[in-house]
Request: fold
Amino acid sequence: MIRGLAAACLVALLPVCALAVDEPDSYRMEDFRAPVPDTLTGGTVVSSQEAHALWQDGTVAFVDVLPQAPKPKGLPEGTIWREKKRHSIPGAIWLPNVGYGAIADVTHDYFRAGLQKATGGDLTHPVLFFCLEDCWMSWNAAKRAIEEYGYSQVYWYPDGTDGWTFQDYPTEVIPPEPGGQ
Reply:
């Protein structure tokens, strides 16, 4: 009986083990809310506790890349539209929509300008990217910062604000950095 129960438990855990995601060669182009890899080539993956320690240290630029829903076109006159507030890590800069797999030149310019502001233009300045848990936007953004923009000290926090708030770390409402679309 116990041996059968142990075997059943092992079989039940196999699908969980099979969820390991390999790091792709290029950017993730779709299904951005899905399990993410455990690695980022050229970057350092951090846990909630490690991200919090970096935040407390105060020397790392925190960059939130959660997408921002656009105001729907064609709303009837008089419709009230309220932007959803972003509760993020205090002191972070919010650069929405820069984590898609393919981005327009104007979005590249916006991303570079935001990173310039966050790091003072220093490609060696440590920078940490995050979004939500199981969100490829932060992985794509971190990869882009490393491979296309030349940042050398990149941290990726895959648990994002979901992991941050789970640990009961502080948050604040932050606006998106001006100039985005």
